[in-house]
Amino acid sequence: MADELIPRSDEFGLAKANEAKVPITNHESASFSKQMLGFWVTFKTMFKKVNTVQYPEVKEETAPRFHGRHQLNRHPDGLEKCIGCELCAWACPADAIYVEGADNKEGEQFSPGERYGKVYQINYLRCIFCGLCIEACPTRALTMTNEYELADDTRAKLIFEKDDLLGPLRAGMVPPPHPMYPNTDDGNYYRGEVTTSHPSQGVAEND
Amino acid sequence: MSIQELGTEQEVAVEMITCVIDGFEITVPKGTLVIRAAEKLGIQIPRFCDHPLLEPAGACRQCLVDIEINGRAFPKPQASCTIPVEKGMIVKTQLTSPVADKAQKGIMELLLINHPLDCPVCDKGGECPLQNQAMSAGHSESRFEGVKRTFEKPIAISSQVLLDRERCVLCARCTRFSEQIAGDPFITLNERGALQQVGIYEDEPFDSYYSGNTVQICPVGALTGTSYRFRARPFDLVSTNSACEHCASGCSMRTDVRRGKTLRRLAGDDADVNEEWNCDKGRWAFKYEVAKNRITVPMIRDAAGQLQEASWPEALAAAATGLKNTSAGVLVGGRVTVEDAYGYSKFARVALGTNNIDFRARRHSGEELDFFAAAALTATYKDIDKADQVVLINFEPEDESPIIFLRIYKQVYKRAIKVISIAPYASRGSEKLKAKLIKSAAGNEIAAISSLSGLSSKSVVLVGERLVETEGGLSAVAKLVEQSGAKLGWVPRRAGECGAIAAGATPNLLPGNRLVTDAPARVDIATAWGTPSLPTEVGMSTDEMINSDLQALLIGGIDPMDIAPDAKIKLAKKFVVSLEIRQSDITDIAAVVLPVAAVVEKSGSFIDWQGNTRSFESAVSQSLNRSDVRILSMLADEIGRSIKLTTVKAARAEFDSIGNWDGPKIAMKSSPAKAVNAVADGEGILSSWRNLLDKGSLQDGEDNLAGTARKSVVVISGSRANKLGVKESDLVRVSNNYGAITLPCVIADIEDSSIWLPRNSLSSQLIRNLGVVSNSVVKVAKA
């Protein structure tokens, strides 16, 4: 019997044995009125507002808290907020983040305090954009942007390095490495008391 | 940190005491601490300062419990890590007593008041007892609203150890370790109250050989290692139990690897060997395996004399051609695993058909070979624990086998046992052991050995490998032990030497201590190997092979500079096949170089000085490098005389199946003593040993470790200083026909005709600079 359908649940052996033997048949013949009812649905839809967007010519804004590509933020003087603590990597359920910390040495200061993230990689082939890394970050270094165009032609290109993830240098920021703002410690940075760079730290970016 | 009770051996019947903890009755030996009795019930009381191998301190107060004895309760909660159980004691821990629970939470809150919130940048984060117990026994909110006390951070208390005083909870584990275990009280608690802090003496840096243990037992991140600083988190690491390859102490270790790279090594727990400790060399010297001059592909020397990379089949064919149908020998080196040594041993006998095999890449003698065959080495760490006295003959445990030093020191600290050292002068190690020094110049030890009296069957005699430098020394020791019944231990410096003897990598022994000259013993091995016959003559020793007209040599990991200054030149005239992990003096002259695996990349085992097998698994599982035995097996196949040891496991199984020789042991021949060196004015008898931290090739690339190495000095006596007209730390020139060394001097109570130099330290590499290492007359002059 060609038109006999076996219930799909049987694939998993879930159907009871005697139920599985009852065939579901489509003997019921479709009446003309029922066909017209179906066409009406199609016709009616033609007058509804269209949701389709002509991507990539037209790009719609995402929801403000959309989980897009990550960004590594900077302090207002340009030092990196990331301290290489690996809590993001620890929190990541997909094992998409790889971090190696290193020591901020004199003359090689990348972040306030003792430690900075020397290697920072996010593998977007693995990332599930759950945002647990953002919650784990103790310095608010890692946040997510709304950027969603994350497709490429090789696997290697989808492993984003620190340079790909670091936020841009805005006005008043000095590209690290450079010393911390004079007479401050990392606590001042975390409390938001450093609001711009100091001339002794280097030449700041102009907007 | 381990919580089980370690190293307490009950010999006699001990009084047992029954008490009740949280409603459960438990019977424990008298003297057991409450916290330890609770552990036996599976009740964990939070703690920081308590450590089973250190004396109780009661410093952190985290382990407070309610205690009642015979109906009378203590008015306040008591620290369970300082109170031994007593009859009728009823203990209520945080699990059953709200008072104890509240007290513990209060202590935790106080500890956290001044503890910085820098867990994200702290190396201990993720494996921190304070973090864990703050979660289990702490409040989630702090009521402290003031400003935390801060200190400058971190300060380097040595080139290896960093101290962050803000994080310290003043548990005094590090200071107690330094005092009670290592005997190096360079680290103490200074100041009082909130400003109390761990500190070092200004004029004496924390250059203990055991400083790494303080990092491991620190329950917070106050002490951290420089090499591991910010390198990884515990969840990044794959840990493998391993054995230490640096000396014959036989430490159990844990190797932590991140993405195929060893990041740190920790002391493993083994109550019978290293307890929970190890030395800084074992802990921090592992970068040699990733050194830039690492060899990973086979190489063949071309017609122009340059090494060219080659495929394995090409290299094996070239090596086989050179070794086949010629007079050949094998130099094994002292760092091989038992399995590899067994491979070399079988390769020499089966594939090359010779007994020309020797593992000794150092001073050696024929007397030593007899000693290997005849001596009954029975001493163990446990014998040291029970010893009435320990005799050290040409052996500096702190430098040459640091865990033996810790074991002896433990008994010196606890029971003040007698230690006698036969040496030219009292080193820092023997001073710490309060050893009675029998001053003797190098070469003159036999008089000192025969002067020893009062040894019993409870005494332990430990002989260093350096005694071979005195002719007749080992015979004298064998005689001494035979007469007194004392337990004898022979302690080589390198980890593979005891295993190499057991595996028969010597000219006179087959595997399992069977003499090559003994027909029944040979039949044993020939049957096991399925060969019709084995060579019957005792083979050549390392020196003999180098000086002989042998055409070809197969060489494992040796440094010709450990043997003789001209060894490299002599070896260059032969066809050399080198099995090496890095470029070396041997690969410089080798015709064929075959790369082998470093210890962390392979499995295998060492045999420690007690004769115990210390097996380990490969820590870096992705490595493509093979253990020596696999390469020897391929090479033997290529030669056409298979040794059928295709894996380390196969080698292990075959070695185990052979077993030890159960026939009679031969008696030690007594070698005559040589006449003592005569010294004229302005001359001295050279004596030396290797410092623990020196120019050893396994310490390459470890600058932090090298920072705590002891300074190179020449030790002279006061009367010699007067004669030379030098003061402490003036430069003194030591010279002979070969060369000279100029170093600052230290005036010490050294045997008058002797001078002492480190054997292989910075600016004092004796073979390279003087061509001799000891027992030789040199000129000493003011520089």
Structure description:
The complex is a heterodimer of chains A (207) and B (783). Chain A has 207 residues and is α+β, with helices and mostly antiparallel strands. Helices cover 18% and strands 12% of the residues of chain A. Chain A has helices at residues 17-20, 32-45, 87-91, 132-136, 162-165, 186-190; strands spanning 70-72, 97-103, 115-123, 142-144, 159-160. In chain A, the strands form two sheets. A three-stranded antiparallel beta sheet of chain A has the order 2-3-5. Chain A has a two-stranded antiparallel sheet with strand order 1-4. The termini of chain A are far apart. Chain B is of the alpha/beta class and 783 residues long. Chain B has 25 helices and 38 strands. In chain B, helix 8 (338-351) crosses helix 22 and helix 14 (445-451) packs parallel to helix 15. Chain B is globular and about 85 Å long. The two termini of chain B are 52 Å apart. Residues 1-10 of chain B have low confidence and may be disordered. The A-B interface holds A 83-87, 89-90, 100-103, 113-115, 138-139 and B 118, 120-121, 125-126, 153-154, 229-233, 235-236.
